[in-house]
């Protein structure tokens, strides 16, 4: 690289890319002071060079005095990018391909990479990390999880002398918005989803969000950062929010709980009986109303970290949007540029712990079940006996007669919250409960998080 | 330094120092993997070598196989520390002297410094930073603000491509515990303080906490990190919580607000009319109950950041205690050790912005006033006219008759919340109100923070 500047190529000029270009112009002097050399935008790769892009043009105009200002650096041909000799390649196009091929080519040429691409990192981060290590270049990806919220440096650097036990995150703004509307407005899922779509918080096809897949990709990246172990999307156990009903939320509220879609990565075992490993899962979760995550509303994201020495930490902020995501990208660009100016690199992928990823039936958590049961003597005793037979200890029981118009036979709604139990024991309990003649149906089973200090 | 290890000297072996020694032993393998070389504790400086220190001895025993394990490295003579040839000097003794002299000596010898010393950094950080720059060594101080909460890297690195507008922090656990008890238990200040003292949250002489001086030192450090400008303790405008009454808290609750002691650092001006600069202040502040900082209870700390591109961010966690503070110290040790192994240094002091620190009367905020007024016609009009005369716009007014037993003359309690106003205009308003014949007394004046989105 030229010692007097850091040459930056931008792959993708959508909402985030345009904001990155804008900030590179507006904050030019600050960025140069922090990086130790001016950052120069030398190419912008787009899919179709002919499409009018007024916002990008306006952003580039802020780079007055450079070829960028005239838009001469915008191209739809990767070879133009390589010809521009970038020191840093900034990928904000998203998707697996062609992003992967482009980033591998960039690193092979010795360029550092900054990417916001959670899908690629969760699906095939190992290939990217290996390429970065082989080329001796930086690979930074702060913007890939929870948008503007700093997590990469806190997890990889600030907590480098500690041990993380568990990470729990609200990492998908769409589902948090829907659950917030269901909780605060008493809406059902379909109505809340429609509201989210009207406001642009949910896509026309909302499945990646509401089925939990977006959160699962982020869970994999968080788990890798927290536990220094490779985790991919395929390792994550996922349940979305499409099955969450207004009744679930009302039942939760009656017991001082709220429903959140959490991405949870935790370290388990390590004693003589249990295999050491990590479990990574995404599912609707009940949280005490006083838990810090319970107060994260609307499209905000937050990540709650339980560490051995540090105790509880939480990081809160905007998880999506052009400017917030661009803020995280810019922080990475400065770090990578500064490293290049100094001829060094930052901490790379950390996988030395190399823990196995364990199946969710190894997880231990509390559960809350709602059962519709026949309203007659002895039913509660029969239900309690099933829990006891599987070694699942009951913490709270609440029984209410079901309101009219009810079923032909008098029934009651039974809410049971358990103490911590093994997932496999709970599954066996539920299967047996469903077969009891006195149980009409198992209405819902939900996991409960948040320690005793938040009850 | 020896290329095959990083030699660490520990100055101070109190609560934090003992935990640092413990973690250096327990996490030895992880730390070596993350730093790129083993960390070896080569000396521990204490004030009195003869005093029994069972916890330190137990921690050092965890460093089995090194001279540290036998306690042979514990000394009360600084020359023994220098003789141990440390690469990194870890200062957790606190106070201005002898910490400053020792750290300057360490850097002059080429050792990097990790310190948790907020008092020293706030009083004379410039001297330390200059010494680090002159010696070309790292000076890291994550643990000096808000204990375990990562702030140094988020503010200095993650937000390096953004612009921070305002930082608001609950950075003193003692006062947050007292205010939480006053709010949740209806206690008065003296009773809540006594409870905090019983639990060890407050010192026998609580003045550094309750008078806001501890928070002010942290505010100075936060302001420097956020605004790349030098700020010292003397620049901070400070009001503590000794004047906060149970009535203030009840009045706040009636209007959906809570009282928190906030450290606020903000950037002001920059347009043609106003001088660009920063204002740094600590005072009891009213926050909407839905604001994320309003839900930070007990001895927890949190720092809320408003940035141009990132939007609102919050970082939450334990602000004090041996293990949480040691976690932050260890993160710094790993970073500094890793830099030394690679022959580089991290980002140093950033003061390029060089903004002036402006007096608090340049601040613009909302205010809430409580006034006891005579309960007769025309009083409200007279009060409102005073606000109008000083250009202070009223947002909310609430008037209640004072309960019996009241004063001899019928009086009412008037609560007035203003729109954003200049501090100097509000001061003039209050002075004139106090002189009105119909105003018995100005019961309280409190600043209000938190934007419209949290109302």
The CATH homologous superfamily of the largest domain in chain A is named: NAD(P)-binding Rossmann-like Domain
CATH class of the largest domain in chain A: Alpha Beta
Which structural category fits the helices and strands of chain A?
alpha/beta
Radius of gyration of chain A: 25 Å
The name CATH uses for the topology of the largest domain in chain A is: Rossmann fold
| Strand runs of chain A, count | 17
Report the mean per-residue pLDDT of chain A as an integer: 91
Number of helices of chain A: 15
Oligomer: homodimer
Distance between the termini of chain A: 56 Å
Helix content, binned percent of chain A: 25-40%
Q: In percent, how much strand structure appears in the residues of chain A?
A: 15-25%
- Low-pLDDT segments of chain A: none
What gross morphology of chain A would you assign?
A: elongated
Largest sheet of chain A: 11 strands, mixed
CATH architecture of the largest domain in chain A: 3-Layer(aba) Sandwich
Hey, which two chains have the biggest interface? A-B, 57 and 57 residues
Number of domains of chain A: 3
């Amino acid at each position: 690289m030229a010692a007097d500047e850091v040459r930056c190529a931008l792959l993708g000029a959508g909402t985030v890319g345009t904001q990155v270009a804008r900030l590179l112009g507006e904050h030019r002097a600050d960025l140069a002071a922090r990086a130790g050399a001016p950052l120069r935008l030398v190419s912008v790769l787009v899919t179709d060079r002919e499409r009018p892009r007024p916002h990008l043009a306006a952003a580039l105009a802020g780079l007055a005095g450079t070829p960028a200002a005239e838009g001469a650096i915008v191209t739809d041909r990767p070879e133009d990018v390589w010809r521009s000799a970038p020191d840093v390649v900034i990928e904000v196009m998203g998707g697996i391909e062609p992003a992967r091929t482009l980033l591998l080519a960039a690193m092979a040429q010795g360029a550092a990479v900054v990417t916001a691409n959670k899908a690629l990192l969760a699906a095939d981060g190992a290939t990217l990390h290996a390429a970065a290590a082989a080329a001796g270049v930086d690979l930074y990806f702060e913007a890939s999880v929870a948008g503007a919220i700093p997590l990469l440096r806190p997890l990889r650097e600030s907590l480098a002398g500690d041990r993380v036990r568990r990470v729990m995150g609200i990492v998908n703004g769409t589902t948090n918005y829907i659950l917030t509307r269901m909780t605060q407005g008493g809406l059902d899922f379909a109505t809340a989803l429609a509201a989210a779509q009207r406001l642009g918080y949910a896509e026309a096809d909302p499945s990646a969000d509401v089925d939990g897949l977006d959160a699962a990709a982020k869970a994999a990246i968080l788990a890798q950062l927290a536990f220094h172990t490779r985790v991919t999307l395929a390792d994550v156990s996922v349940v979305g929010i499409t099955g969450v009903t207004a009744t679930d939320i009302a039942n939760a509220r009656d017991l001082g709980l709220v429903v959140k879609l959490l991405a949870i990565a935790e370290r388990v075992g390590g004693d003589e009986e249990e295999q050491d490993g990590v479990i990574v899962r995404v599912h609707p979760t009940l949280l005490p109303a006083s838990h810090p995550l319970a107060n994260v509303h609307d499209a905000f994201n937050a990540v709650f970290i339980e560490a051995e020495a540090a105790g509880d930490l939480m990081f809160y902020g905007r998880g999506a949007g052009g400017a917030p995501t661009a803020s995280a990208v810019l922080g990475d660009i400065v770090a990578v540029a500064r490293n290049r100016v100094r001829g060094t690199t930052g901490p790379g992928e950390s996988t030395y712990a190399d823990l196995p990823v364990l199946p969710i039936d190894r997880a231990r958590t509390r559960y809350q079940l709602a059962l519709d049961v026949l309203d007659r003597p002895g039913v509660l005793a029969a239900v309690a006996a099933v829990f006891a037979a599987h070694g699942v200890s009951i913490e709270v029981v609440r029984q209410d007669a079901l309101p009219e118009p009810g079923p032909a036979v008098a029934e009651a709604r039974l809410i049971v919250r358990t103490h911590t139990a093994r997932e496999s024991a709970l599954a066996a309990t539920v299967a047996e409960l469903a077969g009891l003649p006195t149980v009409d149906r198992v209405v819902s089973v939900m996991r409960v998080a948040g320690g005793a200090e938040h009850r």
